[in-house]
Amino acid sequence: MCFRWTPPGQTRICISSVSWKNTGLPFPTLLFHAAIAPRPPVSTGKQQVICPSGFFPQFSFGRLVLHYLRGFPSPPYKCRTPSQFCSFFLFLTMKPIAFALFLASVAAVAAADGFRVDLIHRDSPRSPLYDPSSTAFDRVRAAVERSALRRLRFARAGLAASGDTYLEARILPDNAEYLMEVELGTPKSKVVAIVDTGSDLIWANCKPCTRCYEQTSPLFDPKDSSTYHNIACDSRACKLLAVSGCSRNSKCRYQYTYADESQVVGNLASDTFTFTTTGTNTIAIPKITFGCSHQNSGVFSNRTGGLVGLAPAPLSLVSQLGSFINSKFSYCLVPLSQTSTTSKLVFGDDPGASGSDVLTTPLTIQDSFYYLTLNGISVGNTNISAASPTASGSPNIIIDSGTWLNYLSPEMTDQLGKAVKDIVDLPVANDPELSSFAACFQVEGSRDYKFPDITYNFEGAPLKLGPLNTFLEVSQDVVCLAACSSDEPQFFGNVAQQNLHVGYDLGANQLSFAQVDCTNF
Fold it and tell me: Where in the chain is the domain with CATH 2.40.70.10?
């Protein structure tokens, strides 16, 4: 039987036999005999062991080792490369149907294991955006401002999606909330990228960058990467772009215009992306489509070099990984006060999102955003129903890692604020600068204060949140409810998602919540 795979100069690999062998290593070894049909035709009599850098890493983290041999039965072989290991192999005959079942199990094991990467908050000492001179209250105020601006851009993007304006329905997470480190190309070039569930295209600044912000870290040079390939303008990937063109040599050109009119312009390409997982382990994913940006304008931080989109759109990273990760990803956000550890982003299944304590709720995709259905909010003995025009029973709130606060309809915000004020036995803070919050309290001289739990009643998932997720100390001796009034759209932001393992199952259209200690995740 044969399956398609396209290493340089090859068109397909034909498997004649496969077996497992116990080699004494801490993982089982897959051994099989393969004949590669070359292009153009050449003799297959010569023995050659191939460890394809593109295919191999996808299975190595799943405790599987695959080997390729051009030709016919031969003595045992082994091969090594700088980053990969191909152990001894043994050939046993298998029927095609058995091998087909095996391939299915391989994919299942690889996806089931998943892999984790560090998710770095912008205010972490590990972040290039970290400002050691900022106080905790400075960072809170800056985050509130970023959150408000992001909400406005989402609203503009909604207009774009409805056709009321030319701007594309995409949000630029300028200044970012979370970052990740990726290595691009062969040899690897480090890129610090914004991570965002509200954006789709993956892009990185590339040489030459003729009209770009002055990035502080080195630019990625596609000429230095042996695995870099430009994508043709007649390709399917190019046609997925809202605005694209064709260069003189048939390269796909793209232009992304965000809702604040910032732009990135460049060539659509593919290359290998390498992620650092546990410790110093890495996983390399070949042929990831991304934008190699040669021009940009607008609001960008010069301390970041790109963006990794996690939105539900064809060119996002989660969509490109697709069945390899079972169309699943998740994250676990550490409390904002924790600076000694990082949050985690998980691609694929993860045991942290299983068990009887996991809540699940329907996940709806609208305008390339992730929507949930919020039926109401409970605090104390008060139940607050979702109000018109975002009535209960339909998707009405965006879950977003890039928005800091929760934004609720004016009716819900007003009722929630009143309910909390009835419970909290503290004087109300009346600072005009705090007017956007649902409720604020003076805590001066009273360190023994208590705030109530608040339950967000998502469809089928009553998510009970403690004060860590629902209240913020916004200034000296002032604590506010981390919810603000907003016309559509409503948001469930990342303060509310601290110490939650939030899992996105795009195949089942389902989102899960699990209460965990993310510092030990």
Answer: 116-325, 343-520
Q: Which residues lie below 8 Å from residue 461, measured CB to CB, with a gap of 6+?
A: 359, 360, 361, 513
Active site residues: 196, 400
pLDDT in tens, 320-364: 999 889 999 999 999 988 878 899 999 998 765 665 689 999 999
Could you say which architecture CATH assigns to the domain 343-520?
Beta Barrel (2.40)
Residue in 493, 501, 491, 496 with CA at minimum distance from that of residue 471: 496
Torsion angle of C-alpha atoms 310, 313, 315, 319, degrees rounded to 10? 70
290 touches 271 (CB < 8 A) = yes
- Selected from 2.40.37.10, 1.10.10.10, 1.10.3720.10, 2.40.70.10, the CATH number assigned to the domain covering 116-325 reads 2.40.70.10
How far separated are the first and last CA of the chain, in Å rounded?
42
Strand runs labelled E in 223-366? 229-230, 244-246, 252-257, 263-276, 282-297, 306-309, 328-332, 343-347, 359-362, 364-366
Alpha helix (H) residue ranges in 356-460? 410-423
Q: List the beta bridge partners of residue 515.
A: 500
Q: Is the pTM of this model over 0.85?
A: no
